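Hi support team,

I'm opening this ticket because the web form for multi-chain structure prediction keeps timing out on my end. I have pasted the exact lines I submitted so you can reproduce it. The total is 766 residues across two entries, so I didn't expect it to be a heavy job. Is there a limit I'm missing, or should I split the entries? Thanks in advance, R.K.
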Amino acid sequence: MPPPPDVKPVIPPAKPAAAAPVPADAPEIPPISAAILNNLPPSERDVYKRVYLAGNKGMWSQDLRRATQLTTASLSKSTRALVQRGILKEVTDVRHRAKKVFMDARIEPAPEITGGTWYHNGQLDTDAVAAVRRRCLDQIDRLGAATPDMVHKGVERDDPRAGYTIDQIRDILQTMALDRVLEERKSTGEGEFSAVRAGRVCYRRGGAPQGGMMEGIPCGVCPRMDECSPDGVISPTTCVYYKKWLQMDF
Amino acid sequence: MVPQHGILLAVNLISDHFGPLVAKVCECLLRHGALPLPEIVRRVRLPRGQVKNTLLILIQHNCDEPPVTLYLAIFDNVLHRLRFSKFLAVVRADIPESEDLIEGLLQNGRLTFDQLVERTISKVQDGTIGREKIRLNFNKLVYARYVERCPKPEPFFNPLGDEEQTSARKKVQKTVEEALSLEKKVINTATLSDPERFSEIPYSMEGCTEDPPKSISGAKRKHGAFEIDEELNSTIPENEVLWRANFEKFIFCLKKKFCADRKKSKLKVGTHIIWESFFEANLTDNDTNSATSSINGILEKLGQKEGGAAMTLDQITQVLEELQCTTSTDDPEAFTFDLRQMVEACKNEEIESLVKKTYGQEAFTIFRLLAQGRPVETDQIIDTTILDKQIVHSTLYRLWKDDYIDTAEKVGSTPGTGYAQFFVWRAKSTFREKYIDNLYHAALNLRLMVNRMAELLLEGSMDETKVKNRKNVLILMLARHDDSLMLFHGYPIVRKAEHLLAKCHSYRQVADDWNG
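Hello R.K., no limit was hit. The queue was backed up. Here is the completed structure from your submission:
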C-alpha cells in the first residue's frame, strides 16, 4: 500500500471579518504582534510590517527593497535577522523558484505560492499524484462508471487515513480524462450508468487508445519532414529512416 | 485550398498512370485553377496539339470551342485513383458477379454499355457469359448505385451572368479547391437528377444495338470520344449513354466500413454481432453523413448470426443506444448512427496520437487541453494537467515551435507579486491543414519508394525476392495510409465529380493485398 501523500491542510473558508486590522483577503491571518514590533529596531520593524501586509502571498525580496528603499546589503541583514529570530520565513514560490519570497512565520503560504496540494517543498510530488491516480482507477474499475463523489467515498472507505478532499479527487479525475485514461460522460441512467443518476457527469474507463495510422510509416514521425522533397538532399530514396524501416541492407 | 503536397501527390499519380505530359498539364490546372486552352498551352510550353491530346485523356471530351472553354482539375477525383482497389473490393464483397463490370468502368473512366459488353465478353473467352447476363449484372450495379449515368456532356454555365450566346459553353472536368464555388455550380449544372442518374437499362434497349460497338482500347478510345462529341447538340441515343462508377457511393461504403471497424475494438463481448447487423441492415444512402437501419432489418440480420436469434429486443435496443445509435420521433423503428461525428472524433484521435508519439504523454495531455478551443494561461495549464512546471514549459515551447499551438502575451496586474505579464496558449487553427499536408507528403513518399523498388527490380542489382517483398510492403502501407487520406479529405466533402480516362492497371492485386 503506498504511503498517504503529503497533503497540506487546506485553508478553511473565510470567516466573517474580524475587528482586528488584518489584510481583508486573509481574515484567518493572526493580527500583527505589538510585542514583536516593540522589540525590533526601526529598519527591521518596517521590513516586518511590509512583509506582514503581503499576507499569505509573501513578498519578493526585490519588491521589498523597492518599498523600503534600503540597500541590498542592509535589507538582507534585516531579513536574515528576522528569519533567525523566527519572525519571518523564506518560502519557495513554485512558479518562480529562483525568487526569494518572505512571509510572516505564523502564516501558511497560499496555494498559488506552494503550488497547491500536489506540491511538496515547491516540487511536484509525482509519487503522491501517481498514488491517487491508481486509487481512483481502482474505484472506477470496481464501479464501472462513477461520479467524483462516488470515487471519493470509495477511496475513503478503502483507506480512511488517506484524507483526500473531493476537490482533489475531482482534479485528478479531470486530468485522467485529459490523458484519455478515463472518459467523461453524462450518465444516461441506464445500462452501465444505472448506478448514476441520469444527466450527472461521471467517469468510466477510456478504452484502448485508437489512432496512429500515420505512425506506422517512417514519414509519420519524421523530424525532417519539412526539409524532405523528391529531388532534394533529403528525399525518400536517400532517407535513412526508410532504409532502416525496410531493412535495405541486403 | 489544396495543400502543396496534395498537388505533388496528384501529379505523381497522374504521371504514373498517364505519363509526364499529362501530369504537366494536370499540375498546371491544379495550381492555377480554371484556364482556357491557349492559356494552358502558354503555361506548359507544349505544342497545342499535344496539350489537346493530354486534355482529351484527362476529360474524355472533345474540346470544341477553345476560346470559351475552361478546364479545371478535380483534385478529389485524381486522388480516387489511389483507392480503385478498395472500390473494387467493396463490389466484390457486395455483388461479386459484377466485379468485372465495375473494373472495366474504373479502368476506362466512362463507357457505353456496348463497350462494357464487348470488353467483358472478350475477357471471358469460354463464352459462358452472354449479353443478357451482363445486362442483369450491370443493372444490379445501377440498382445499388455503384454506377451512374454520366452528367450532361456539355453543361452550360455562365459564372458572370452575362448574356452570352448559347454556343458559349464551359466544360468542366476537374477542379481545385480555390475554384470551389465555381466547381460546385458547374457540377450542379451538370448533375442529372437521381432518377436519371440511376435509371436501369430496360429490355427494349436490347433491340437497338445496331451501331457497331466502339473500341475501348487506349488510343482508339480517344477517337470514340470525338465521335460522341460531334453529336452534342442532338439527343444522345439510348445506347450511347455513358456510364461511370459512382464515387460518392463508394466513399460512403468505405466510410461506413471504416467507422464500423474502428469501433469494434471498443465493443463489449457479445455486442459485436449487433454492431455488424446494424451496418449490414443499412440500405438507405440518402444522407452520406449518417447510417440508418430499421430495427426489423437489424433483427433479420441478427437472426442469421450465431447467438443473434436468442437476443431480446430490449437487449438489442439497449446496446444500440450505448453505441450512440439514436432514434428519431419521426420513425421510432429506425436507428441512426452519426458517421460525421465519429469521423470528427477519429480525426482528433489521429492528430493526438501523433502528438503523443512525437512529443510524449505530457504533450498529448497539454495538446488535448488546448485543443478544446479556449486560450489557457500557462499557470492554469500547470494546475489543470498536474504536471511539473519545467516539463510544461519545455513541452509548450516544442509544440509552439512546430506550429501546433499559438501563444499571446497578456499584461496582468497582481500587485506585490511582480508578475507583470503572462502567456495564454491555444491550439492553432491551422494544425489540421499542416497534418493533412504531411499526410499527402507521406503518401507521395510511399509512392516514390514503390517506384524506386520497381526501378531496383529492373536494374536487377539486388536480391529480387527481397526487393519484391519490400515493394509489396510499401504498396500495402500505401493502401493503409490512404485510409488516413480518406478520413481527412475524402469523407467530409463527398462531391459529385467527373471521371478521368484511365489506362489499364491491375488494381486487383492491390485489392487482394488490401483485403488480406
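A quick check on our side: The longest helix of chain A spans residues 126-143. Let us know if the file doesn't open in your viewer.
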